[in-house]
Design brief:
Helices cover 81% and strands 0% of the residues. It is mostly helical and 439 residues long. The chain has one domain (3-432).
Length: 439
Amino acid sequence: MGLKKLLTQSIIWRSFYFFSILLVNVFLSRYLQAAGTGSLYFLTIIFTFLQVILSLSADSSVIYFASGNLVERNKLITLTGVWSIVAGILTSVIVYAYFFVDAASDKSLINWYSAFGFFFVCGQSLTNYCVAIYYTKENYFLPNLLLGAVNIIYVLFIPGAKENHDALHTQWIIFFYFFTFFTGGVLVFLSYAIQYKKESAMRFPERHLFRQIIRYSLTALGANAVFFLVYRIDYFFVNYSPVCTAADLGNYIQVSKLGQMLLVVPQIIASVVFPRTASGIEPESLNKAIITIARIFSQLFLLMFVVTAIVGKEIFTLVFGETFNKMQLPMLILIPGIFSLSLLALLSAYFGGKGKIKINLYAAIVGLVVMITGDFIFVPRYGIIAAAAISTLSYMANVGYSMWQFHKDFEIKWFEFFRWKKEDYNWLFSFFKFNKAEE
């Protein structure tokens, strides 16, 4: 399948999935309000960090080894399927241990939180592994359809409109929220196993291949763990800042999650760039596409900045509720940083596909140093405004290092990423002209 047609398919179906995530976010925000949403998403961030560590970031290995036909896909899915269950069980053990060590914890919640942890880590790991394998097959339709359907069913059928939001009812709402991760992961795993079962037997990779997978995964794990801290450690500084309330945390996390939604298209494109780079198909076309997409993104994010400055507060309170009335200024400050992350998504996918994972790791370390230093100094005094500003500076430092390394591979001046060109629009519009021959 040609690059442009592949990107178009990816954009359509991954956009459907991310739209379903937005629906879940809006539903939970209006139901739990700012303080409750902040607490839930803060818990999710802790589970996400455990998932990054316990999954060994093997989804990167899956893409690399499957795209290059180095390991049979059914061997990869067997290995990662078993490890997802192991990662979920380990999470439950960690949660149990925490409740016993922390004397102040409410022991009545131990079973709830252990279930939350298992569902999230096992389900998210299954999803990441299996979706990665699907993408190496250039199949963006089925995994995103299944995952999006699970989210939409959750929003439509969970009784969130109940007027008396008692504690037990809220607890079940949260339980089913975490259960959606597990359900989606299992569905994607089973769908792949059934659809492609005739390709080869479901068995584990040979020992020498297993060692190669682990070696690549551990390198990717280092980069992803540092990436996680770059993107999420500001939540911890905000949570423990003496000038921030629970509602402030909810507003800030919602700003960050919206920023992640703005990264949908860059991540979609990156999911195509990584396998294509690893497979070596159309290298010149791919490199040109990265630069062109970067220039288009610069204009889109400028438009988002203007819209947010004019009507941002009204839109945020209308969609998420009146308790989310502190989002506008942090969002304005964060938009340049989100633009930097959009470029980073493309460059990180490029380096990952080239097997240059260490470049992504070093770039993340640069961003992390800026993030921790700035947050430690300014967030305790200036709260979420400082957190947004430091995040933007950190993301800029991160992408700056990656752009410098990209320049070493291709003699491209940095301003080529931002210089607007008329032909970029012709390239963009050609995505929707299916009657033309693929370039």
